[in-house]
Each structure stands twice: as structure tokens, then as C-alpha cells.
Amino acid sequence: MLELSDFTIVIAGLAAANLVIRLGGYYLGAALPQSGAWARGLQALPGTLITALVTLQLLNGGPAEWGAGAVALLVAIVTRSLPVTMITGILTIYILRRMLGGG
Fold this sequence. Notes:
Elements: H1 6-31, H2 37-60, H3 63-79, H4 82-100
Helix pairs in contact: 3-4
């Protein structure tokens, strides 16, 4: 008789959960509106989430956070590239925190 170990059961359960999550995301995405006010709101959501997170860091931060925010803003204006701005901001906050002893 074939016996399944706990490890095999966990792996099978995780594989099934992964499949359900992926299919659920696909079907949910297909059901979302493709035009109109709701679609515009959903398209703006990632940018608003990033803005909220950055604002929270600035309000709770010190000189390193404000300096990195200023550098990132300048890079955003010059390059108009979100990936370049994000990488620059992350590197700048890392460097400033090391230099100012905040992290």
C-alpha cells in the first residue's frame, strides 16, 4: 500500500493552493472593468500606494529620508523613469543612513 508522508501532503497542498491563487487572480483580472472610472482608478492604484509609502517614510523620517527624497525627486524630474528613480532613492537612503549613522 502506498503511504504519503507529511512532506508529500504539504507539497501537494501548497501546489494546489498556488494553482487556485493563480487561477483566481486570472479570473478576477478578467472580470475587472477595462474602461470607465473604475478602470482608471485601478490603473492609478499602484502609483498612489507608492506615494503613500514614501510620504509615510518622509513624515516619520529624519535628514537621511528627506535627503533621499530630494535626490529621488530630482532624478524623477530629470529622467521621468520610475525604475531609475526607485533605484536611485533606495541607493541614496542606504548611503545616507550609513553616513549619518541611522541604519
